[in-house]
Amino acid sequence: MYTRPFQSIAKHSTTALANPRYQFTLCTFSTSPRHCAAYNMPQAPRINKIEALPAAEAKWVEFQKISWQDQTGRERVWEAANRKTRGRAGVDAVAITTVIRHPKRKPSTIIILQYRPPVDAVCVELPAGLVDEKETPSDASVRELHEETGYKGKLTFISPTIVSDPGLSSANMQLATVEVNLKEGDTEPEQALDDGEFIEKVVVPLDELYERLVQYDKEGKTVDARLWHWAAGMHFAKTML
For the whole model, what pTM was predicted? Predict the structure, then answer.
């Protein structure tokens, strides 16, 4: 078991894959798949084929043709994507901003890196996931943070239901903040990833987050809008107000 005291795993060296978009942090502490699901893979992810998805085969999303009237009474049609997995809470997903507090280190947060086929890129994101059928968004936030990063914390804030791409999709979400309080000597927690999940977690001091995202962009990775907006908001509050 990995017993190194808590520290940013971003300090480890990176593998030299041919395409810089697919560089991942080298896992130096274990070769166990549960510890290193995103590391030391035999190949970079790749797209083999893109084709139309028949509606009968769609498990997670469906296309909708929305007939509506605009403010002048004119009949219009809108094409949209819709999630098929929305549960009782009426919220599709949660994303989690984390605040890690340690007695001897600056406040930090956790971001994740994972390959996303729709954009054919390694994306830099907040920990996030779908809300289960009988689950509340608050419970999903704590659960997803633990599964994707190993960290357990206390929910301190949950946003109203918000949307991120309303011109394309009906998908909605809530943005949560979970606080993690560490003690001196705490060990790096183990992720609890599902089969097929390849997620690299990176701990970043909050006052370095904006610059780190800029650097990831220069490396060819794609930064998720929710994470960027959060980091940019903190950066602008310090530099422009």
Answer: 0.83
